[in-house]
Amino acid sequence: RQGLGLRRLGRTADEFQQDLLSTLYYRRGTTVESASARDAYETLSLTVRDRLAERRARTAAAHFATNPRWVYYLSAEYLLGAQLEQNLLYSGTGELAAEAVKTLGFTLEELEGLDIEPGLGNGGLGRLAACLVDAMATRDIPAVGYGIRYDFGIFKQSISGGAQAECPDDWAFQGNPWEFPAPDDRQTVGFYGHTEPVPGSQTRKRWIPGEVVLGEPSHMLVPGYGTETVNIVRLWRARGSEASFDLSRFSAGQYAEAVQEAVRAENISKVLYPDDSTELGRELRLKQQYFLCSCSLRDIIRRFRLRNSDWSDFADKTVIQLNDTHPTIAIAELMRLLVDEYELEWDQAWSITRRTFAYTCHTLLPEALETWPVHVFERLLPRHLEIIYLINMFFLREVEERFPGDTDRLRRMSIIQEEPERRVRMAHLAVVGTEAVNGVAELHSKLLRETVLNDFADLWPAKFQNVTNGISPRRFIKIANPRLSDLITEGLGGEGWLSDLDQLAGLEALADDASFLERWRAIKRANKVDLAAGDPDSLTDVMIKRFHEYKRQQLKLLHIITLYHRIRNDPGGDWVPRTVLFAGKAAPAYHAAKDIIRLINAVGSTIAADPVVSPYLKVVFAENYNVTLAERIIPAADLSEQISLAGKEASGTGNMKLALNGALTIGTLDGANIEIRARVGADNFFLFGLDAFQAAELRYSGQYRARDNYERDGELRAAIDAIQSGAFGGVGHEVAGSLLGWDEYLTLADYRAYVDCQDHVDRVWRDQATWSRMSVLNTAHSGFFSADRTVSDYAARIWRVAPVPVPRDE
Ligand code: 26Q
């Protein structure tokens, strides 16, 4: 207030209630008597938002006064999760709100149920972006996250006749109280057209676009936990300009034609692409990417010029983190802005650009490395293609100087792929145009250096780094698992662990305390009762992630079929009851993944209909996996399935969320599993399978025959035979065929080790005291996986930024 000159926002129950009523009357425009649940929800949300907005204003003032170095996070995806509960927590107004909403005739839980999650992402990469912006605010780092405000988020999944069905996700249909439109900051973005030389200049060009689109921003507030900072995520929505409405056609009665240009423009931010790895090379996707980058860069430059006038300061005041290659066209766009529009010399522009950007890679799958056909680029972004050619020419000169005569190396490293078709390799552009490149877990970063980006690591070894991913402990334990959080707070004597997650190590001292273990176990059970997926006393075995063959849901399925056979063959056996819970979406065009979903549901139905087996084994497919559902499942999990083929999962972050909540992991030596195991201890982790080296050797030896495993292993044979003989309603022939054929992800090679390891899981489960002790130790040693630590690593090693504390309002 001092600085802002505002009336104090209510902090007592009375004051909060007055604020709530003011919001109801003056902003929602309704009354207590006629307020619907939706009215009450919107009213509460706005009232809570006001408290964050006040902090936002103080944050902006502190940032403006400091003129700090800024982090700009560029991401095509954000999976922010539901906002109300988080914002109640971060503004410390949970209790006030719970009381106040009663006067409107509703409970807080009811209103939280109306809070919609903006599904503006596919999976891990989008959720990582959300965890990182949360942690940046928590660590007082001046930052803005830039993204796209898709009208339709990731599709809603339902299971119909055992198969995945998709529905559009019109997430903001009823409005979004968390969003601030900022129409004054709109930007203009060009596409298509041609370039013309600029008389008297060698390097500058004039680009005359053939289509012009407006980008309208809105932002959501991103508060820090336990600090005053509130940063923003700024999302761009495409709009037709006034000129895109053709009044003369309208007057002539051609209504559809009159708006077709505007519709075309608005299609750019219409829908999130639901593919989470394979590149389709669709022009609209490239349009989305360029739209995001052009709007964001202009906004970044506008913000820079508020406090700075000299371009030579730009790279000192700005770091732009590229979340995978999706926003990599920003490198060429910044060059274009600096050279063509601000008239800098090429060399100065290139030096600024290179020092400004950093690139995070999230994959190792070759088919996921983005490339665009040169002809698509040429048509859509003719000036950018010219710039990329120039960047490539200077770059290849540098390679030639270091490795004279090594033409094969030049061919491998070129930003332009020549065969079988000329394409722009976005990962190469991202490495060439940035100061730092990082992988997302130790193994991933090492494999990047040694395989996919090996030539680049030879040339610039110091550029390559690792920053292991992390997760928000506020969302994924405090909010998701209040019971466990309360017990931890009691055990540690305070809530300090929520912003200093290493403090969880203090739980180790309680890992042998029988009464503590009993309470720990009771909480897990209560969470299972809430989830209501199956018998709360059964082992709850969860595999929750996107469906992809490399993640190997099909391996889990073979284990389930094996258990089914064993129980049928020995109904009187002393079986450990299990509930296996799957959740996850498959890309709509990814048929092999959808086949696996069908088979899971078919096997689940067969087992449910079998009176001998169903008391011991239940398979559940939870529809429409999203952040909100994850927050319900994770606290109830006993066992976390992280069974990707080693060398394929860059990191994984669900693995971290589950371990933090006391699930034990069964996993391969892949991604962050390796670091989880190193921290929680090998004794508290169920390890199986080939390592990345063995897997690569087996695959490339040419000696692997999946069928050998089938012939050698009776239980495996029985499982696959059952699928092929139609035991599961005739479903699954494609899955079985792919396993017995090429078996790309070596599922059959790891089957026996996996099933034996699951037998070991059962043995440990029978000793509940031991299991609970292991569970506590998993939580105790998960502190490293806080996104706060991830952000500190980025800040120290890549961004070189310092925190800017925001003064309290006192
Ligand atoms: C690209 C082009 C066209 C259409 C879609 C895409 C696309 C979209 C999303 C490609 C990839 C993604 C998402 C990838 C992703 O989520 N990767 C995961 O990132 C996590 C955070 O680093 C890791 O933990 C996971 O291991 C990795 O799979």
UniProtKB/TrEMBL annotation:
Top enzyme category: transferase
Transcription regulation in keyword set: no
Species annotation: Actinoplanes aureus
Record protein name field: Alpha-1,4 glucan phosphorylase
Glycosyltransferase recorded as keyword: yes
PANTHER family: GLYCOGEN PHOSPHORYLASE, MALTODEXTRIN PHOSPHORYLASE
Any one Gene Ontology molecular-function term assigned to this protein's record: pyridoxal phosphate binding
GO cellular component: cytoplasm
Function: Allosteric enzyme that catalyzes the rate-limiting step in glycogen catabolism, the phosphorolytic cleavage of glycogen to produce glucose-1-phosphate, and plays a central role in maintaining cellular and organismal glucose homeostasis.
EC number: 2.4.1.1
Highest taxon, organism lineage: Bacteria
Cofactor(s) of this protein: pyridoxal 5'-phosphate
Keyword tags: Carbohydrate metabolism, Glycosyltransferase, Pyridoxal phosphate, Transferase
InterPro entries listed in its UniProt record: Glycg_phsphrylas, Glyco_trans_35, Pyridoxal_P_attach_site
Reactions accelerated catalytically: [(1->4)-alpha-D-glucosyl](n) + phosphate = [(1->4)-alpha-D-glucosyl](n-1) + alpha-D-glucose 1-phosphate
Biological process according to GO: glycogen catabolic process
CDD domains, A to Z: GT35_Glycogen_Phosphorylase (cd04300)
Family to which this protein belongs: Belongs to the glycogen phosphorylase family.
Modified residues (N6-(pyridoxal phosphate)lysine): K657
